[in-house]
Design goal:
The complex is a heterodimer of chains A (114) and B (117). Chain A has a single domain, classed as Immunoglobulins (Immunoglobulin-like, Sandwich). Helix content of chain A is 0%, strand content 52%. Chain A has no helices and 12 strands. In chain A, the strands form 3 sheets. In chain A, strands 2, 5, 6, 10, 11 and 12 form a 6-stranded mixed beta sheet that branches. In chain A, strands 3-9-8-7 form a 4-stranded antiparallel beta sheet, with no helix packed on it. A two-stranded antiparallel ribbon of chain A has the order 1-4. In chain A, strand 5 and strand 6 form a beta hairpin. The termini of chain A are far apart. In chain A, 39% of the residues are buried. In chain B, strands 2, 4, 5, 6, 9, 10 and 11 form a 7-stranded mixed beta sheet that branches. Chain B has a 4-stranded antiparallel beta sheet with strand order 1-3-8-7, with no helix packed on it. Chain B is globular, with a radius of gyration of 14 Å. Classes of the chains: A mainly beta (114), B mainly beta (117). Chains A and B meet through strand 5, strand 6, strand 10 and strand 11 of A and strand 4, strand 5 and strand 10 of B.
């Protein structure tokens, strides 16, 4: 079965610092990749997704992610974080060979200090 | 923007009792899902539902769980006899019809926090 690893469990940054959150998946076939954000007390929201094409994907709120197939990675980046980016970030993968089920990473908690 | 809605937002139930979590998916969506997130752990897939039947389910989704689409708008998750370990946040999601090799992103509801006492 597919598995998703997010290596950073808790990240603390000052405002304006750059952010990179790691995400690696285990399956080497055709996958669709997503990053979701969960603000405190709120539901999961889609930040960005990759299905095919340009491996550098731009999402909402200034986030972007780069799909590197050779490294099975889909890292999330933002050049300058804000206090409002404090949230839990989840990487998710759909293995297109096995269906429509999402496999989620364990999440990374981001705290941005003003 | 249309949203997936879930009720109630918080459900407190005695162990052994039956609980029904309700979801109203986005109206033109045809695929429906339930996930759960135990506190401090990752979001886990429970079940997917299409064309009035379960299309996939995980090991977590045992005989105590069932799903139903009782009418044209609601999608429910029933836990027959709740256990302490069922305490979690339960998320409903929906997506448009899946085209070949072009999955639509799933839209999630706010979640129902289920507390078993």
């Amino acid at each position: 079965a597919q598995s998703v690893s997010q290596h950073n469990h808790h990240v603390i940054l000052s405002e304006a610092a750059s952010l990179e959150l790691g995400c690696n998946y285990s399956y080497g076939g055709t996958v669709n990749l997503f990053w979701y954000v969960q603000y405190p007390g709120q539901h999961l929201q889609l930040l960005l997704k990759y299905f095919s094409g340009d491996p550098l994907v731009k999402g909402i709120k200034g986030f972007e992610a780069e799909f590197i197939k050779s490294k099975f990675s889909f890292n999330l980046r933002k050049p300058s974080v804000q206090w409002s980016d404090t949230a839990e970030y989840f990487c998710a993968v759909i293995d297109t060979n096995t269906g429509n089920q999402f496999y989620f990473g364990t999440g990374t908690s981001l705290t941005v200090i003003p | 923007e249309p949203e997936v809605t879930q009720t109630p937002s918080h459900q407190v139930t005695q162990m052994g009792q039956e609980v029904i979590l309700r979801c109203v998916p986005i109206s033109n969506h045809l695929y429906f899902y339930w996930y759960r997130q135990i506190l401090g752990q990752k979001v886990e897939f429970l079940v997917s539902f299409y064309n009035n039947e379960i299309s996939e389910k995980s090991e977590i989704f045992d005989d105590q769980f069932s799903v139903e689409r009782p009418d044209g708008s609601n999608f429910t998750l029933k836990i027959r006899s709740t256990k302490l370990e069922d305490s979690a946040m339960y998320f409903c999601a929906s997506s448009e019809r899946m085209r070949h090799r072009s999955n639509q992103p799933q839209h999630f509801g706010d979640g129902t926090r289920l507390s078993i006492l």
